[in-house]
Structures are given as structure tokens and as C-alpha cells.
Specification:
It contains 14 helices and two strands. It is mainly alpha-helical. The chain has a domain of about 220 residues: MetI-like fold. A two-stranded antiparallel sheet has the order 1-2. Strand 1 and strand 2 form a beta hairpin. It is a multi-pass membrane protein. It is found in: Cell membrane. GO terms for molecular function: transmembrane transporter activity. Belongs to the binding-protein-dependent transport system permease family.
Amino acid sequence: MSEPVTLTPPSEHPPISDHVTRFDPQVAHRRVTPRLRPWRWIVSAAVLVVLTQFIVGVFTNSHYEWNKFWAYFTRESILDGVVVTLQVVALSAVVGLVLGVLVALGRLSTNPLINGLSWAYVWFFRALPLPLLLIITFNFSYFYPRLGVGIPWGPVFAEVQTSALTPLAIGVIALSLNEAAYAAEVIRGGILSVEGGQIEAANALGLTKARQLRRIVLPQALRSIVPAYGNQLVGLIKASSLVYYVSLLDLFGAVYVLESRHPESIVPILIVGATWYLVLTAVLSVVQFYVERFYARGNARALPPTPIQRLRNFTTSSYVRLTRRGF
């Protein structure tokens, strides 16, 4: 049998030493400064030197023919190609998102038929290469000259000629079908990321499934859906260059035709095409950042700083550090 434990009364505790409870006047006036990290500044300076040398080398290299850049950058055929690219991306993104939401809800459905059809859709269009899908869509009128709406094995109420589809419509249809398959998985993953306790609480409150989805699930799921779907839209901008397979002159098609007509200016024309794609992607990235920042409200203690705020904070902190060190 173990011996009983004897507790020491509070009055018998050893006294706390005097140097713990009192401030040392020689230490109190000292200023706390952040730890110096010289290697961080050395590496940053080295990277900045290499980057500066690369940029200067690019703009001083005569083989890039920068004197022709602006002439081709604002050329009418290039601007028309940019407009077509924006049309294709915007229409495909909207149609693909709507169809992707329906497929994602079908994947989450408890109905085995709807769930199976939604799974088959995602499997088929993710497995099919996009150039092949564009070619099949382009030749769709060969297999089905007419599409109609009516009673099965009965009269047809309305029909359309598939041969009347324009290259823009063909490109949007193919890109939308492909985009919807990936968007469905992004949306399904975002919905599944919501904690099950949220659904249980909504069921306890007697909310309908539609209201649960609209008021509880989607506002939380969008925090994880927006970054992933923004990445999908960046991929869609690049994938839109494949509509040249269906005789649609987008930005890539305009660049290709222009360089075939001016073989002596291939390099500046290619740089123009790359620059326009970089501009479109940069604009989309800025929009994505602010959308993510909007949906981060209420979840993060502090909203992520904008690039301008981050630059201002860095400049201010660097100035304070240099001032403290007597520079």
C-alpha cells in the first residue's frame, strides 16, 4: 500500500527570488530588435542581380526585334483574335459552370441512375483528349444531320440542322462539355469539404435540401471551389487556342496566320501572342484574388493583403529597420 501524499500549505512554499519579481533597470531600457538574417538579404540581392541581368539582356538583344513588337501587338487581326478568345472563354466558362453544377449534384445524388450517369459523363469527357473532342464536334453533322425535339418514335415538334452550327458554336460546345467534367469534380470536392455537423444542424432546424445548399453549404464550399476553379479558367484560356482546329481564328489562329504571311518576323509575332496570353491570365488572376478575398471574410482573422498593401508593408518595415540601425 502506497504512502499518503502530503500537500504543502501555501505558506510553506519556498519564496520566489527577488530577481524574478523585479525589473532590472539595466535591462528595462534596452530595445528589442528583430534577429538579423544576413543570408536572406544576400540571397535576395543575388536573385535580384540575376533577374535584372536577364531582363536587360532580353530587351537589349537585337534578335527579339522589339522595334516591330508594338506594330504587331495592336494589329487589327491580333485584336480581333483577342476578342474571339474572350468570347470563347466567357461562353465556355458560363455554360461549363452551369453544366458542371448539375453534374456535381448528380454525383452527390442518392439516385443510382442519376449518380451513374453523372459519373459516366465525368469519366468520358475527362478521358477524351480535347483536340479529338473538337474534331468530333466539328464532324457531328455527318453523324446527325438534324436534331429534333418530340415524342420518342413519334412526331417531331422542332428540329435544327447541325450543319448550320458556326465554328464559334462548335468550339464553345466542345470546350463547355470538357470544362463541365472538370468543374463538376471541383464543385463536388468543395461541397464534400463542408463539415458534416453543418448539415446535421441544418436538418435539426428543418431546412429543406435546397435551402441547405443555398444558405449553408455553398457559402462555405466556395472558399475551396474558387481557387480550384480559377485554376481551371486559366487552363481554359490556354485550351481555347485549340479552336483553331475547327477553323475559328482566335488569338492563336491570328498569330499562326500572321507568322505564315510574315516569316521574316516570326519572333516578334510569337512574343506578341505570348504577351497577350500573359495579359489575359494576369487579369484573371487579379479577379480571382479579390473573389477569394471576398469569400475569406468571416473565416480568416485577417483578410490577405492586396499586392499594393504587401508592397507598402514591406517598404515601411524595411524603412523602420534601417532607421533603427542608424542608416
